[in-house]
Amino acid sequence: MEKVTETQLNKLQRLLNYLKDHSKFYQRLFSENNIDINLITSFEDLAQIPFTTKDDLANFNDDFLCVDKKQVADFVTTSGTLSDPITFYLTAKDIDRLADNEARALKCAGGSTEDIYQLMTTIDKRFMAGLAYQLGISKMGAGIVRTGPGAPFLQWESIQRFSPTILIAIPSFIPKLIEFAKAHNIDYKNTSIKSIICIGEPIRNQDFNLNELGKRIVSQWDVNLYSTYASTEMGAAFTECTEGTGGHLNPDLLVLEVVDENGKVVENGALGEVIVTTLGVEGMPVLRYRTGDLCHVYYDKCGCGRSTTRLGPVMGRKQQMIKFKGTTLFPPAIFDVLDMMSEIDLYQVEISKNEFGNDHITIVLPNNIDNTAFDQKIKSLYKSKLRVTPDIRYITEEALNKQVFKQEKRKPEKLVYV
């Protein structure tokens, strides 16, 4: 774990007392497990407390609320990627905390008051991240253009009209933006854009080199890419600095543990599950919350000079581990192969069970590229990269667009369980 200051420890002890006084869920947890919070005097002592899980949040949602609902200033939900969305309640104080986190995160990624950000993600649909970006940009004193997701014409018209310097976007949309520019004779290589803050999807491999999606972007557009990792539950973000060697922790906002399968904290550079404890949250704090996300963790000093703990790219989620023909895979590895192919800019991966209860993978593609030679090319690439070959199914581009970009979803649905 990261080095602990007296201020952090004081914040942790205040949190434990706050939960004991105000949280029905944690009152029960402490009582049922005979936990004396006065004996938690270090971050290491947190191991005495059981993990909080997504099921806990789903089954006892309102028992986590620590204030009267009259004090709730903003109502948000999780994305519901693997289950039904979970409600989170933010007080005015929590909104200020969110703004502070994002302002610091954007500065970490090289941003300043001189920049204009084009926010290419939704701020509606109960989405905390969109709200956080707007609040953070305003707090740091930079400009903002709120275009929302999709709509390539509006994106380019806004870039030409307002000269933003930084985009905040889901990275898989950027190749579509580039293709639109090429098709409409837009000189995209000579615009005001210098950087892209990439959200929701990884752009790096575990060695911090760009993955295939990241390479695809920078091979066509001379921009700097920054990755960020966050979740509604933590109300904070791990954002890369200019070194591009992991997202930095804001240690006054979160206690971070990265643990192995036995719940033990892993060593520097090792892979483990991300566990977070929120500091300074008033509405719905969480204690030792299991995110399910698997990341490498780094405790050593970063090349930028910061000594805060860093997280590498999310390698996958424990719930999304796929066993396919004797090989263990996570979705990002499947996506990475598809992102290598310039012919593909739209796809969906279906995970199903065969008659023996084993995982089966089907790649769904638009039928405008349906031919035998392409089938062989993609299967050969999967065989060489992952040692397995999934099935391929073709449907119309219109139908696939509807499957991937659902109106009720906040992010492209690149992976589905059928």
What does this 3D model show about the protein?
With 418 residues, the protein is an alpha/beta fold. 29% of the residues lie in helices and 23% in strands. It has two domains: 1-315, Rossmann fold (3-Layer(aba) Sandwich); 321-417, ANL, C-terminal domain (GMP Synthetase, Chain A, domain 3). Strands 3, 4, 5, 6, 7, 8, 9, 10, 11, 12, 13 and 14 form a twelve-stranded mixed sheet that branches. A four-stranded mixed sheet has the order 19-18-17-20. The model has no long low-confidence stretch (mean pLDDT 90).
* Contiguous uncertain segments of 5+ residues: none
Could you estimate the helical fraction of the residues in percent? 25-40%
| Topology, number of strands | 20
CATH-assigned homologous superfamily of the largest domain: ANL, N-terminal domain
The percentage of residues in β strands lies in 15-25%
Predict the CATH topology of the largest domain: Rossmann fold
Principal-axis shape equals: globular
Fold topology:
Layout: H1 6-22, H2 24-32, H3 54-59, E1 72-77, E2 87-91, H4 92-108, E3 116-119, H5 128-140, E4 143-146, H6 152-162, E5 166-169, H7 174-183, E6 195-198, H8 212-218, E7 224-231, E8 236-240, E9 247-248, E10 254-259, E11 271-278, E12 289-298, E13 310-311, E14 316-317, E15 322-324, E16 327-329, H9 331-339, E17 348-353, E18 359-366, H10 372-386, E19 391-395, H11 397-404, E20 415-417
Task: Note the main attributes of this structure.
alpha/beta, 29% helix, Rossmann fold, twelve-stranded mixed β-sheet, 418 residues, four-stranded mixed β-sheet
